[in-house]
Automatic annotation (TrEMBL):
<dbReference type="InterPro" id="IPR036890">
    <property type="entry name" value="HATPase_C_sf"/>
</dbReference>
<keyword id="KW-0067">ATP-binding</keyword>
<keyword id="KW-0597">Phosphoprotein</keyword>
<dbReference type="InterPro" id="IPR011990">
    <property type="entry name" value="TPR-like_helical_dom_sf"/>
</dbReference>
<keyword id="KW-0812">Transmembrane</keyword>
<dbReference type="GO" id="GO:0005524">
    <property type="term" value="F:ATP binding"/>
</dbReference>
<protein>
    <recommendedName>
        <fullName>histidine kinase</fullName>
        <ecNumber>2.7.13.3</ecNumber>
    </recommendedName>
</protein>
<feature type="domain" description="Histidine kinase">
    <location>
        <begin position="541"/>
        <end position="732"/>
    </location>
</feature>
<keyword id="KW-0902">Two-component regulatory system</keyword>
<dbReference type="InterPro" id="IPR005467">
    <property type="entry name" value="His_kinase_dom"/>
</dbReference>
<dbReference type="InterPro" id="IPR011712">
    <property type="entry name" value="Sig_transdc_His_kin_sub3_dim/P"/>
</dbReference>
<dbReference type="Pfam" id="PF02518">
    <property type="entry name" value="HATPase_c"/>
</dbReference>
<keyword id="KW-0418">Kinase</keyword>
<keyword id="KW-0808">Transferase</keyword>
<keyword id="KW-0472">Membrane</keyword>
<feature type="transmembrane region" description="Helical">
    <location>
        <begin position="479"/>
        <end position="498"/>
    </location>
</feature>
<feature type="signal peptide">
    <location>
        <begin position="1"/>
        <end position="17"/>
    </location>
</feature>
Length: 732
């Protein structure tokens, strides 16, 4: 029972899914040009045909054939006629099939497309296979493969090539040519992978699984074949599950599951049950009677293995009902089910029911047998009529052969007479040849004597030549030895020179590195010196502020207080008030000097607050200082903030002192780990080319501080327009 069901399922079904058909219809309807439409038409028409939309399929083919016939290249017409011929064959329209195939051949001769020629031969082989002309079909398939192998790659080549290999594999399987079956099955799998069509890949895995299942059936002890079979069937199921939306039919899943369940029945009943239930579930959802019956058959076999006869009988009865629903009746399966039911009833001791099933089995067998005898009788009668016509043809052929023999006999007599005349001529020519032969013999002896002399002379020449060759070789060997010694010495000298050069280059690199290091040290010393100079200048300015400002105020206060005596009581109060005012001015001056030295706001609130405070203190009615902070996050260290503050102080003081400006803009922004600082004024301006930074203490101090911060400075100025100083300082 199990094997019969398996044989039924070797070839996959070709039912197209509705969503795939809709997709093809959409692609066909939205074709951009005639070439694209003609390229899509064969696949679309085939899908319609297998969806039982045959009139529309034939209409699509006729429409596109009329368009293809007008093309200069006959490739589209050849392919479309080939598809039409295969459809006619499936409809059992023999005359139309033959006519379409002939037209496909005619158009294949009008094209240089090897793919179109190959597809014509594929269609020819496909039709011959179904007409049971296997030898001619194989020849056509092999010719198609030759064309496909010499065709450039297109979007359809590997699929058409793969289908040809699949057909050959199936033929060789029926002929028990297992090596050729395996060869073309592997080729089919390779081509399906290249085409990247999940439906073709699924069929290829199932084909390979069946190849190894045949081998396993022949050698049941070889588990390697069984494992290969299992591997390919599982790969087929994995391909289906991965590409569910693109699969043409869900029948493919139940088909693969049934084959796997059949395989597992012999050695793993749990897995066999798992896949039989999967096949049963899918086939019931689809409503495929053959697949439902097959899955019930496997479940029944598994129940029999567990001696669960009632369950097995139930499954066999369900399988029998499904077989009855199928439009294609398989009498062998029905006989097998009846026999199994009879055997189960007998095992249960229900002999009456067993006898009833057995009688049904015998009646069915008899009807099938009688039908087969009737078919055989009809076939023999047809064969007899054919042989009788062949006998008439043979009789006519014999009469024709008899007349031909008489003509041949007359020609033989004539030829004999000519032969006698020719023999007389040959005797005369033979005598002449003998005379010539004797003359040639004498000439030959003379030639042999002359040849012997020449050979002796040649041997002497060879000996002399050999002596000269030996002397020449000795001379050449001497030269070789000299050149070898010369090249060895030269190589040693070159190696010594290379080492010396490498040593000198290494020393030069070391000296260069030392020089660079010295230059870096000098640069650091210069920078530190400049910083020290800046600090000294700052100290000098601090000393001047203390001496000129605070010192003067304190001296005046002292002088004022020294004139206050008890005798001048009327002026004491006024003098003390004035001295207190001077002390207040001294305190304010001290605060200003301290603020310039280290602003409190900078320490407490950061750079932004310090700059704004500085701008407000310096601004007056004749000078406005504007500050702008964009994306500023106060992320630089306090030491750097102080240096930036000093730079802004210096730039603002320079603008006030030298540019006579009325407006100054200070702008600070952050952007990608970079602090941008711009100080602009609308003062007198100057020519940047005439500015010697090394001689200008202010700009020199600014430049040193910028270098210390590893930043860059750019000065833009124009006379009577103003000056802009741009600084970029890294935050990190």
């Amino acid at each position: 029972m199990r094997r019969i069901l398996f044989i039924l399922l070797i070839c996959p079904l070709f039912l197209q899914a509705q969503d795939v058909l809709s997709k093809l219809e959409k692609e066909y309807s939205h074709a951009l040009n005639i070439s694209e439409q003609l390229n899509l038409a064969p696949k679309y028409a085939t899908a319609l045909f297998f969806h039982d939309l045959k009139p529309k399929s034939y209409q699509i083919l006729e429409t596109n054939i009329s368009l293809a016939a007008k093309q200069a290249d006959g490739k589209y017409a050849a392919i479309l006629y080939a598809v039409q011929a295969m459809n006619y064959r499936l409809d059992n329209k023999t005359a139309e099939c033959s006519k379409s195939l002939d037209l496909s051949r005619v158009y294949s001769l009008k094209t240089n497309s090897n793919e179109a020629k190959g597809y014509f031969n594929y269609a020819k082989g496909w039709i011959l296979t179904r007409n049971n002309k296997i030898t001619d079909a194989v020849a056509a398939y092999l010719k198609a493969i030759d064309y496909f192998e010499n065709s450039p790659t297109t979007s359809t080549l590997y699929g058409r090539f793969g289908n040809t290999a699949k057909e050959l594999s199936a033929i060789y399987s029926d002929l028990n040519e297992y090596q050729l079956e395996e060869k073309y099955s592997k080729q089919f799998l390779l081509l399906a992978s290249k085409q990247n069509d999940p439906n073709l890949i699924f069929d290829a895995y199932m084909r390979m699984g069946y190849v190894y299942e045949q081998k396993y059936a022949q050698e049941p002890s070889n588990t390697a074949f069984r494992n290969k079979t299992e591997q390919y069937y599982l790969q087929a199921i994995a391909t289906f599950n991965k590409n569910k939306d693109a699969m043409l039919s869900r029948n493919s899943l139940s088909y693969a599951a049934i084959n796997l369940a059949n395989l597992y029945t012999g050695f793993d009943s749990n897995k066999a049950m798992q896949y039989a239930q999967l096949a049963n579930k899918v086939s019931l959802e689809i409503g495929d009677a053959i697949h439902i019956a097959s899955s019930f058959g496997i479940l029944a076999e598994l129940a029999l293995q567990n001696k669960n006869y009632d369950l097995a009988k139930s499954y066999f009865l369900k399988a029998s009902m499904e077989i009855g629903k199928s439009p294609v009746r398989n009498h062998l399966i029905e006989l097998s089910i009846l026999e199994s039911l009879s055997r189960i009833s007998e095992e249960q001791g229900n002999y009456k029911e067993a006898l009833a099933y057995y009688k049904s089995y015998v009646d069915k067998y008899k009807s099938v047998y009688d039908q087969e005898k009737l078919d055989v009788t009809k076939r023999l009668e047809s064969q007899f009529d054919k042989e009788r016509q062949e006998q008439k043809y043979i009789k006519l052929q014999l009469e024709s052969d008899k007349k031909a023999q008489e003509i041949k006999l007359i020609n033989i007599l004539r030829a004999q007479r000519e032969q006698v005349y020719n023999n007389l001529k040959l005797v005369e020519e033979n005598q002449r040849e003998r005379l010539k032969f004797s003359e040639l013999e004498s000439e030959k002896k003379e030639q042999q004597l002359h040849l012997a002399k020449l050979e002796t002379q040649q041997k002497n020449n060879d000996i002399n030549t050999f002596k000269k060759l030996l002397a020449f070789k000795e001379k050449i060997n001497t030269y070789y030895i000299f050149f070898i010694v010369f090249f060895i010495v030269l190589i040693l000298l070159l190696l010594y020179a290379y080492k010396q050069r490498a040593k000198s280059m290494k020393q030069r690199d070391e000296l260069h590195a030392l020089a660079l290091e010295k230059e870096k040290q000098n640069s650091k010393i210069s920078t530190l010196t400049a910083l020290l100079e800046g600090q000294e200048q700052e100290r000098g300015r601090l000393a001047r502020d203390l001496h000129d400002g605070l010192g003067g105020l304190l001296s005046g206060t002292k002088h004022q207080l020294s004139y206050l005596t008890p005798h001048q009581s009327e002026n004491i109060e006024e003098g003390i008030s004035k001295s207190i005012g001077q002390i207040d001015e001294a305190v304010e001056e001290l605060r200003r000097v301290a603020h310039n030295l280290m602003p409190d706001l900078l320490l407490k609130y950061g750079l932004e607050a310090a700059i704004q405070d500085f701008a407000s203190r310096v601004s007056n009615s004749a000078l406005e200082i504007h500050t702008e902070f964009i994306n500023y996050s106060n992320s630089i260290s306090q030491e750097k903030q102080l240096i930036v503050y000093r730079i802004i102080q210096e730039l603002v003081n320079n603008a006030i002192k030298h540019a006579h400006t009325s407006e100054i803009i200070v702008q600070i922004s952050e952007e990608e780990n970079l602090l941008n600082l711009i100080v602009e004024d609308n003062g007198n301006g100057f020519d940047p080319k005439s500015l010697s930074m090394r001689k200008t203490a202010g700009f020199h101090n600014i430049e040193i501080r910028v270098q210390f911060l590893k930043g860059t400075m750019n000065i833009t100025s124009e006379p009577n327009v103003g000056t802009s100083v741009e600084l970029q300082i890294p935050i990190l």
